[in-house]
Design a protein that fits this description.
Elements: E1 5-9, E2 15-20, H1 21-27, E3 30-42, E4 45-53, E5 64-65, E6 68-71, H2 83-89, E7 99-109, E8 114-125, E9 140-147, H3 148-155, E10 162-169, E11 175-182, H4 192-203
Parallel strand pairs: 3-8
Antiparallel strand pairs: 1-2, 3-4, 3-6, 4-5, 4-9, 7-8, 9-10, 10-11
Length: 206
């Protein structure tokens, strides 16, 4: 993974070269990512899918995150980013089935990395259920489904916890279903402004 190379950009989104994953995150270069949020409608209610990051991930293990997300390699465009969906959750989707939601520029800095992302954002209106996901254990250890209205209220501080149902895969590849209540502290700490912008963009489409 450290041998991966990404295009890097200046503050005005001009390409300034190529750098390794390590340098991108240590030196804080702007780089491109692919974010795809799955939504579905069940008995008249809209739901959103979240992935549970693997406990072996270097960054943010065991936290809830975007349905599918990944870095774009130096020779890739957002169109090629669709490969992440098949790789991470085992569902093969053509790029033209995704709804483009634009590009979000955001930055998260902590003691381990400087993550400056130019995130190409997409929505997928899914007819899949939790049983349809075949996850890549190195990346993902489970999938979760929450009501979209609850997800919105959580990030707008109108609720402290929301109900989540899903499954987790253990190290022996055994699957365990669960229902529990989750709060913001169980999510990858993207900027709150990112979550709110995503919510507003999704609301416009569902």
């Amino acid at each position: 993974m450290e041998n991966e190379f990404f295009k890097i950009f200046d503050e005005e989104r001009n390409i300034i070269g190529v750098a390794s994953r390590k340098d991108v995150h240590e030196l804080g270069y702007w780089h491109e990512t692919f974010h795809c949020w799955f939504v579905t409608n069940i008995e008249g209610k809209d739901y959103i899918y979240l992935q549970l990051r693997s406990d072996t991930k270097q960054d943010y293990p065991n936290l809830l995150d975007i349905t599918v997300a990944g870095h774009l390699m130096a020779d890739e465009t957002a169109r090629e980013g669709v490969r992440e969906i098949k790789e991470e959750v085992g569902i093969d989707i053509p790029f033209h089935d995704l709804v483009p939601l634009g590009l979000i520029k955001y930055c998260v800095i902590n003691e381990n990395l400087i993550d400056k992302e130019l995130a190409h954002l997409f929505l997928y209106k899914s007819a899949h259920n939790l049983n349809d996901f075949t996850i890549q254990p190195e990346e993902v250890s489970g999938m979760v489904l929450v009501e979209f209205n609850d997800f919105s209220k959580l990030w707008l501080d109108e609720k402290q916890e929301i109900k989540a149902s899903g499954f987790k895969i253990d190290k022996e590849n055994n699957r365990a279903d669960f229902v529990e209540y989750i709060g913001k502290n169980q999510f990858v700490p993207h900027q709150i402004s990112y979550y709110i912008e995503v919510i507003n963009k999704i609301k416009d489409q569902i």
